[in-house]
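Much of the work behind modern protein science is quiet bookkeeping, done one molecule at a time. The fold becomes a row of whole numbers, each drawn from a learned catalogue of backbone shapes. The protein below has been through that process, and both of its lines are reproduced in full.
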Amino acid sequence: MHLVYPAVLAALLFCTGIYGVLARRNAILVLMSVELMLNAVNLNLVAFDVWLSRTAEEKLHSGQALTLFTIAIAAAEIGIGLAIVLAVYRGRGTSDIDKLRDTAEGHETDGPDGTDGNNGPGGTHGPDGTHGSDNPGDPDDNGTEPPAAKKAEATA
């Protein structure tokens, strides 16, 4: 078999993996695309090992040994990656990478149900446009009581 066939197949697999990493928004599909890229590298390692062992009469098969090492690393990577994706999905309610990136950068404060933990979408705002209560030290207050009721509670 010629070296061109596995090399072209590996290039196609690698390009498909790059497309999947760059174009997909689902974290699991991105992990699958990374696996495609690793398998393309493994195919190249084995193909070049076979090609070089024919020309150099080498019996070491270092390409195949590196392939086994890469497979072991890829198995560990996919196990840890899936555990992280499942934990993030349980916590955030989505595995969309764009939404996760926005929450990590602090652009979006919505939880998995579309609220930010207060009474409604976007929470409540006080009369002066501020978020939450008039008293910043009050963790239980979300700005829903009228100011007269707050003063009555403070004097009681």
The first helix runs from residue 4 to 23. The mean pLDDT is 79.
